[in-house]
Amino acid sequence: MVLAGIGAGLAVIGAGLGIGKIGGSAMDAIARQPEAAAKIQTAMIIAAALIEGVALFAVVVALITNA
Question: Is the pTM of the predicted complex or chain greater than 0.70?
Fold first, then answer.
């Protein structure tokens, strides 16, 4: 069960770092081209949702495989 916790924790940490990187890059892009803010924000939200979905899947797999 300890390995499940480690796997779930790594998945969450990885997702947090990925979403943080996306958010920071999006803010840089919006600062450079404010007129494209809507398109950048939409792409950022979609990418963050996909990362969050993969992280949730990884947590579930980690908890199921070590149950």
Answer: yes
In angstroms, rounded to a whole number, what is the distance separating the alpha carbons of residues 18 and 22? 6
- In which band, very low, low, confident or very high, does the pLDDT at 52 lie, cut at 50, 70 and 90? very high
Backbone angles phi, psi at 66, to 5 degrees: -105, 15
- Within 8 A by CB and 6+ apart from 44, the residues are 22, 23, 26
Instruction: Give CA–CA dist 6/44, Å, rounded.
Output: 28
| Alpha-carbon torsion angle 51, 39, 37, 14, nearest 10 | 10
Let me know: does 12 contact 20? Beta carbons within 8 Å: no
